[in-house]
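Good day; I would like, with your permission, to put a structural problem before you. A protein sequence and the structure tokens that stand for its backbone fold form the material at issue. The record follows directly beneath this note:
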Amino acid sequence: MKAVVYKSFGPPDVLKLVNHPLPQRSAGEVLVRIRSTSVNPVDYKIRRGSIPVISKKEKILGGDLAGVIESADADSQMTKGDRVFGLSPDFTFTSKWGTYAEYATIKSNLLARIPDNTSFDEAASLPLVCLTAMQALESAQVKPGQRVLIHGGSGGVGSAAVQIAKAWGAHVTSTCSSKNMQLVKELGADEVIDYREQSVDQAFKDNPFDAVVDQIGGATTTQSLAVLKKNGHISFVLNENLNYAKLTAGLALGTLGLGPKYHLGFVKADGRMMQEVARLLSTGKLKAVIAKIFPLEEAAAAHEYLETGHPSGKVVMTVSA
């Protein structure tokens, strides 16, 4: 099969299209003929060697997949020909496998069927960002009617979180740059502010939030905590600006009931949540936000675009049928 691999850490041009052996399916897994995948920041961080503890040299990158089942167990809940999407657990850690390829194996219970109203490109853009958003919102125990602050509403995780929180009945406030405010409003945010013009601690000092999803860190965290209820929840998405000393202290105080609850998670593949993603897509409560589509053969260009272009939405790669 064709696959994109790197054999040494470095810039985008270390990514090479090669002929690679097919993965071998085990019991409980399905073999998926991939039609689309997408690029996430964790992909280029692994490629650069920025997270060496979990990075493996000579790896197929990628975790998002959308495609068609090629083979499955006789008693599998998924069958040959099903259009499916999901997040492969192989996207990081020590596995050499990934989804920048024509084929991948994955446990069938981690997948959901793609709704009829959704293309392969749209479906491939969603698993990692939707699962990240859902896990952050669930850990924050978001309930209907609560006020939720979501930073970076035009990005991959942010755009998913805005739509999912709104679909779950929350009152959603989001931050973004002025050029993306209309997009974030169209995604369902009740209030949107330009973070360059107004800080959340000033804008909402008299109207605090029940929950915050923070994928920015640094000063954004400080501002968010100033407008978070004492019994509220703040969920952190891993980023380079996290202050782990303050995070540890916050976790301890929250556990003791002396402040808001802190949550820090690393996204996990989850079939139950993928079923919810499919439901929201089929009912029109969730839509993909795609910035640009590249062919798999141009993986290096896709990485460079994501790293330097600050796109609104996801970067998708199509895999030739």
Summary: Residues 127-139 form the longest helix (13 residues). The mean pLDDT is 92.
